[in-house]
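Chapter review: from sequence to fold.
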Amino acid sequence: MKYKNIIITIALLLASVTLCAQQSSAEKEQQLVQRLQEAQMSGNDKDFYKAHDAFLNYLEEHKSWDKYYRTRMSLIIYEVNNKRFHRAFMEVHKLTDDIKERHHDQYLYMSNMGMGFFYNGRNQHELAETFFRRALQGINAQKDPIGVFNAYLSLAQSLSFKRPAEAMACLDSLPQQMLQVPMYESGVLGYRCIIANQMGDREAFKRYFTKYDSIRQHIPDQFNAANLEQVMVSQCLIQKDYQCALGWCDSIKVPLTATELRMHIYEEMGDWKRAFQASQLKDSLELTDEREALEIHMMDMAHDIDLLAAEQEKANIRRIQLTIVGLMAASIIALLVGILIYRSKKNRLLREQFEQLQEARHDTEAGQAIRRAFVMSIYDKLKSPINVLRSYARVFNDPNFMLKPEERPKRYSDIIAAARSIESLIDPVLDSYVRGTSGITDEEKRICMDALRSPLLTLISTSEVIIEGHGEIPREEYMELRNCVCRDAYHVATATQQLILYSLYGDNLEIKKEHKIKLNELARSILNSYDLAPSAIDHDRHLGREFLTDVPDEVEVFTNPMLQELLNCLLDNADKYAAGGTVKMSCHDCGNGTYAIAVFNEGPAVAADDAEHIFEPFVRLYPEEHSLGIGLPLARRLAKLMGYEVTLDTSYTQGARFIVSGL
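The token string follows.
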């Protein structure tokens, strides 16, 4: 087994080795060390930084440089463990500058150690291995056995992912005098057990585990429990005590590690269903990690830009750079012009091809399939700009998210590019609807233009104003402009997606239900993932959400992923017209072998006369509305094609309740 989160436990072991080495007879120093250890284990950033700064100041005053630099290393490890790679990277550079300024070149190996931790945390283990080997070359083994111990242990961790045998050899190179201390020996033995199990060497595992468990049983106060849960899971699997192994998994605080272990246990048990569920959960956790890594990568890019700006001090270099930038800008403009011309020609060709295909539709039933393929091609082109606008709407809706002035031109240029892509394809989208199973009236086309073209033009012009401001727009004015961009981006993306889906599924072709999933789990997941609400975008109002059910958790239904789009339409409507309170989703047993999902709010009820009228496309109940009016019709169309039914519960008078039945 490979445990991707092993860096967390190894880093804790390294931190404990470093901090234990820093203890001395001085009472104040012991108190500061203990305070730092407790803050590190608690995970409270404020307490850790405060304790870390206090200890550093103490060591600097007493010119205890060995302990000083090791304590700075503990901060780098702490930031890596918490996935704050940008901070860790900055701390490595600060550490390097500090060592050079004080002319303490014998500690430069710690900079390589810091970069090794940085790349290990980002799963770039080959780069980490390079830096750890550089660190080993710069350590005086006679004078600094702790540094050698840390370097070999870290190198072993980097090698364990692809070359476990070499990792075990690194552990054999650890200074023996360090292994005479039970705290260090038990930590290394635990890691040996993990690598031996990964190599499938049960004899070696038993040999190491016997020593490991002996220290745990007989010297508990000096036992290093960093990898205890993973070692015990391996021991339980060898003994085929699966329940015990699962019990140890429950005590692991790192969700991804616990999930990977459970998946392996289920595979050993032959419980493939739960193994598959664990695999899905693992993939979800990994995607979350990847998203966080992407956000951190953006921070790294911002840091690189800052470094580049700092280097542009000399006038001659500035002129060269400005020349290069000018050439690049001219090239980009030329490229954009070429792309616009190409897209214009391509869109014209698409329109001509579409008109020809629509003429063929009257002659053969195959025209329906051709139209659907065309709409799908447009949808494929629109997915990326729609996702760009929704992503920016999501982050701009967060008042704590701020772009640096120098980042604004790039980000708002992305928004303009996405908006122009949608603008260039609006006419083909409307044409695809016109040539569907029913036509579109002039009034309906006016509504489409009002809901799409107007916010598109506003979005483009507002973004251009921000770009032309060159970062000099006052904060309050900028935030107002950003809120306008956020609102228009959300409405354009939502309206475009709903319109293209309504057209795409306008041929009354059945949507197959081939996915089997637990009903409560599905509904709860859709409600929890609903993170772009109209009321939050338009009115900065955040309503509560609540999930209710009278259906047992083990009930499963066959459905299609488009059910999420259906329920999102209902959630949009419930959130938009709620007077306040909570938007709720509930699951019910219909008593005839089918189930229903209800979405309801607290607010004005829909008049009985409008109970069916609201499901007609492009209907607006209120004159002041500027929405497309296609969310509820899309929900009903998707429900019909999946064999469900969407209705308004007119007996519910505290608001509006929509019911999806027939699941």
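Two observations follow directly from the output. The chain has a mean pLDDT of 80. The beta strands are 515-518, 544-549, 556-559, 580-589, 595-602, 645-648, 657-661.
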